[in-house]
């Protein structure tokens, strides 16, 4: 990692877990029981200690839960201590729960009426918890403030915000500059207006795919069983397939998440095109869509020239790879019919069992401000959540003009501008039961990636079950 990070590596590790990329591998259920907060008697005036006029009032204690190790929790507590010392009304205490049983522990605490006041939550569990009455309405959190996050970062249930993402993340494309230079092939476009069509993307990938004899897929004598360099990889970890269905005029769901669209011809066709990169075009390695480590498997492994994945990879892996003498660039995604990407981000929530919702929201509002997590932003793990960082050049330069990023103009157009003009919220911002839906869709598509079934055959055979999963009746 570059020198000058404002946070320790431990801080980066725990908060990287909070972002969309790493939270995707937690297999705990998000289901929560509908319970009311346990009732405990309030201190009566008779039982409360008498306060002298000169004695300051005690601070309200807010418990904020995170997942990670005890050491990682201590790092987050250090950040909370900055907040604690900045004012005299609220004291934040960090509750650290091991990642592997984070949601199980929260479920147990919910049943007992002992949830913390606030916490971080996986993206795919937010709406389900809101539907169970376990999350507080946070629509008032930013009233009278200029620090409200982008509207696309609001998790909404029944038209009301129930959480805001702690960071903004979009899907984009990375590429190995040295591979492009060696093949004398122009770099992928970083400007949305010049985005490649899907056919242009595939044609370029063929120029960068090479077998042991130096042959390309469109040349006589090419052997798909002896490929030494692949031209492309489109991440097929389930949630990252959504932008392709949207780009082709389909989608996973309708606009409010109440109806499944994955069975529509446009959605099926988009997924088949992704599968055909391996099966038919011979430009991508086989991936069965079970792990969310695409950049490590492709760009960093040195086997793939360009690959799609999330913006967080700049900070979590590509900086170290660049420091080892490698060269990469960023570009906008190719498109099928519409130019689309999706944004995501782990959710900061206020639990409905709290007795101090206003104080909990005050903490989250402070915690979400860029200056309070700048090390994560400047390293490339997080993207800012406030509109001004995307539209005010002074703030954009402060964010992007640093050695951890690709050149300013390239990163600004491929990431900053792209996030404003082409990003749609990932479906878990507004759709219930995405955990079950994504798990079923992922298993459904297993035979598609290996060519045992077409996308149409696999999805049609499981469409009723996918619709039931969306309704929570699987």
TrEMBL record:
Residues 29-56 are annotated as: Disordered. PROSITE patterns: PROKAR_LIPOPROTEIN. It comes from the Bacteria. InterPro entries: Bact_solute-bd_prot1, SBP. Residues 36-47 have a biased composition (Low complexity). It holds the Pfam family SBP_bac_8. This is Sugar ABC transporter substrate-binding protein. The lineage of its organism: Bacteria, Bacillati, Bacillota, Bacilli, Bacillales.
């Amino acid at each position: 990692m570059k020198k000058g990070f404002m946070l320790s590596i431990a801080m980066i590790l725990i908060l990287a877990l909070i972002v969309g990329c790493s939270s995707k591998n937690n297999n705990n259920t998000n289901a929560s029981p509908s319970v009311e907060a346990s009732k405990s008697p309030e201190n009566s005036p008779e039982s409360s200690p008498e306060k002298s006029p000169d004695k300051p009032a005690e601070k309200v204690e807010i418990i904020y839960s995170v997942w990670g190790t005890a050491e990682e929790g201590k790092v987050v507590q250090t950040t909370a201590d900055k907040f604690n010392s900045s004012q005299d009304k609220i004291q934040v205490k960090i509750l650290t729960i091991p990642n592997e049983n984070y949601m199980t522990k929260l479920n147990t605490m919910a049943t007992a009426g002992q949830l913390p006041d606030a916490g971080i939550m996986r993206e795919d569990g937010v709406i389900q918890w809101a539907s169970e009455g376990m999350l507080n309405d946070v629509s008032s959190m930013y009233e009278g403030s200029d620090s409200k996050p982008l509207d696309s970062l609001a998790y909404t249930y029944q038209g009301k915000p129930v959480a805001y993402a702690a960071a903004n993340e979009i899907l984009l494309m990375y590429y190995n500059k040295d591979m492009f230079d060696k093949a004398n092939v122009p770099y992928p476009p970083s400007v949305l207006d010049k985005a490649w069509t899907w056919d242009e993307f595939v044609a370029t990938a063929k120029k960068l795919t090479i077998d042991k004899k130096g042959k390309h897929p469109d040349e006589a004598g090419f052997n798909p069983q002896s490929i030494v360099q692949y031209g492309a990889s489109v991440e097929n970890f389930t949630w990252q397939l959504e932008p392709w269905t949207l780009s082709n005029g389909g989608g996973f769901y309708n606009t409010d998440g109440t109806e499944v669209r994955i069975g529509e011809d446009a959605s099926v066709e988009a997924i088949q095109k992704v599968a055909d990169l391996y099966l038919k075009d011979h430009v991508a390695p086989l991936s069965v869509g079970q792990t969310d480590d695409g950049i490590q498997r492709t760009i960093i492994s040195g086997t793939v020239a360009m690959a799609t994945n999330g913006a967080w990879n700049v900070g979590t892996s590509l900086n170290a790879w660049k420091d080892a003498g490698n060269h990469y660039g960023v570009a906008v995604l190719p498109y099928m019919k519409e130019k689309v990407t999706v944004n995501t981000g782990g959710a900061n929530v206020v639990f409905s069992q709290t007795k101090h919702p206003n104080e909990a929201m005050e903490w989250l509002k402070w915690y979400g401000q860029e200056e309070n997590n700048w090390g994560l932003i400047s390293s490339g793990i997080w993207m800012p959540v406030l509109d001004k960082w995307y539209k005010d050049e002074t703030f954009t330069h402060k964010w992007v003009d640093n050695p951890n990023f690709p050149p300013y103009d390239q990163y600004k157009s491929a990431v900053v501008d792209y996030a404003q003009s082409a990003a749609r919220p990932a479906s878990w911002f507004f759709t219930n039961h995405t955990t079950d839906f994504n798990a079923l869709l992922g298993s459904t598509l297993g035979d598609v990636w290996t060519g045992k079934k077409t996308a149409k055959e696999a999805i049609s055979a499981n469409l009723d079950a996918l619709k039931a999963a969306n309704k929570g009746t699987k």
